[in-house]
Amino acid sequence: MTGTVPTVELGDGLEVSGIGFGGMALSHVYGRTDPQEALRTLHHAVDRGVTFIDTADVYGEPREGTDGPAGTNEELIAQLLAGRRDEVRLATKFGITGRIGVSSAAAVRGDRAYVRASCEASLRRLGIDVIDLYYMHRRRLDIPIEETVGAMAELVAEGKVRHLGLSEVTATELRAAAAVHPIAAVQSEWSIWSRDVEAHVVPAAREVGAGFVPYSPLGRGFLTGALSPDRVAGGMLREQPRFTEHFDANQQVVDVLRDVGAQVGATPAQVALAWLWAQGASLGLPVVPIPGTRSAQRVTENADALAVRLSQDQKSRLDAAVDLVHGGRALTFTAKEWISAGRE
């Protein structure tokens, strides 16, 4: 039976399910996954009504002898789309030419030729004719953003892309991009413990009429309370002090989520997601988080968070949890310019 998740309009008329699914969770960055199990999780998400699926050309197991975008996550999702294209709003991205999780990830292109070639490659891997939402994953800083977005706009005019999005852009970059073509969504990290985007990027998104798509809304698993030091040591997170030397101190944030969850009958993950929706409402823009998971059970848990309601007192207590956070959100294998806060 197909579940029901309310739809939300982001920007530029793009309607998506009120919660999405982050495909990177099914990739090698957090350890290997059984492809068939991953596909079952994707089908369960759509069955449950989580029909906004997010991927990128760079997600997936790198091919032997290559350093460029892997494309294997798109190929996995293509198996879902083969029989359910009409049910899914599909987002993918271009721009990162290196490998996620290693120093070469910082390599980025945004020139017209690369934008077009990347789109064609993604369409081919996904087995589709049009991408619902096409993101610039990261900006090449020596190329004007107007040039990159102009090339993306050509893809819309040609019917290969329906809507445009930008990831980890500054407020200034977002305004410049929106002057070239409507921006449906901004995707950046945003959660109860990563709130830097609220200072400049969120107000700019509201100003230009873009919705916000928070990635890592559950703090890469930390905010669920289920992440262990052993799991941290085995993957990309071992490079981030927030998850290593500050692991114990940051449990205070999880404790707040647990306490509020006990009051409303919800898990820490559900409270963290409910906070994001409440924060979006208070700041005046649509918010559609895209938590990733390998577990069908977690998909259901996350979708059920849409029913959680927070009182103002509970919301205020969750707001204050940011003061308990130790360590920043930047990935240590890249320069500070990799995220919008490093360029604001």
Automatic annotation (TrEMBL):
Keywords: Oxidoreductase
Residue ranges constituting the NADP-dependent oxidoreductase domain according to the UniProt record: 19-322
GO molecular function, one term: oxidoreductase activity
UniProt signal peptide: none
Keyword Transcription set for record: no
Annotated GO CC locations: cytoplasm
Protein name (database record): Predicted oxidoreductase
